[in-house]
Each structure stands twice: as structure tokens, then as C-alpha cells.
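Side project, low priority. Logging it here so it doesn't get lost.
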Amino acid sequence: MKYAMDARSDGTFFEVEQFTQRVGPLAGDHHEVAADEVIYVLGGTGRLTVGGEAHELRPDVAIFVSRGLPWSVEGAARGVSVLIHEPEPSTGHAVLDLNAVDTGTATAGRQFLLGATPEVGCASVTQFVGLVPPGRAPDHFHTYDEVIYVLQGEGVLEIGGEQAPLHAGSCVHLPARLVHCLANTGDSELRLLGVFRPAGSPAEAYYPDGTLAVPPTNKES
């Protein structure tokens, strides 16, 4: 299926109009002059220097760096990076510990943790970790373009009657308005790292007929 894949040998996943998604070591000097960048630390530790500030890196730390701002990492931290091409105007950077943020609620009992968003200076995208319980949500679509990296668990992506298995390290690209279902086929939580544009709420979804899918906590009893 063209919408799901594993990493190529150079660590690159999807390269589409809006995004380039990569996974690998974060160590070294970095300077993206034409793209904003959002990063999620997968494993290891390190020390990030950006904008004259130093930050300790560990798993579940999310980072936003605006285009043209140099940054560097020392240590063995490894992460998922998404370059945002032709970004909306933004400046500065943000470093967030996703273990310390509030949990939001989406459809079918799914929850999410927000990383880089416009609220922290990242004007173009929303970065989040999705927490998916075992089971299948109804078919739906979003009005944003999204790339997803599977952090933990097992699942299946269903699009147009075609299925693709998902596991830790799999990546998914969901163009805007593509009807799909991403099901958790395991017996434990499926964790997903998502980045989508334009920025908004991960809970916003629509059924194939165009009606809004409302989180269970907001439905009338």
C-alpha cells in the first residue's frame, strides 16, 4: 500500500509536498534554512543547544525549531524528525516533555498528547502522540495532511478495502480527506506520533458522509 511503509536505508520515510519525515541519530550540527522542523526523541539521551539555550534530551521530549535557526545535539539521542516545507512565518524554538502535558480525548476512546503547536510558536503544524486502545474506530477522514510514525504496538491501516500491517517503526501518510481506518489489532495500547498541517486538533475527524465525528465524552447520552 502506498500510504504505509518502513524506513529506507537512509532513514527517510515519506517525502511529500508538505513534509519530509526521517528517523535516526540526532547528534551533530543542524541548520535548515528553508524548513521548520519538529522532532520527537525516541530513545537515548543527549544535550540540545538551540537559540543560546541548553536542554537535556530523553525519550518523549518534543522539539520545534523554526527555519534558519541553527541547533546541535551532543550524545546518543535518536528521534523522528519532520521537516515542514514552505512553513507559515514563525520564529524561535520550543522544547516540551510530553510526560508532563495534559491528555486530550478523540473518537472511539482514543487520547492524545500535544507536542509542537501554534501555542508554542509552531505556526504550521500540530505534533502529537496518539494513544489508541485495542479495537477499530469507524472509517473517517481529516481535513489536514498527516504523517504518522508508529511508536509502539501493532495495528492495521485500512483504505479502500486494502490493508497494510503496522508495527513499531512503520510510517503512514494520510493526505487530506482520504477515508481510512487505523485499527489497533493488539491487546495493548498502540502509540502513534503524528504531525499534521494545517494545525488544529487531533480530535477533528469526519465520517465518510461528511458529518463530524464527535468524541464520546461530548455526545449526548
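Brief comment: Residues 153 and 190 are 5 Å apart (CA to CA).
Revisit when time allows.
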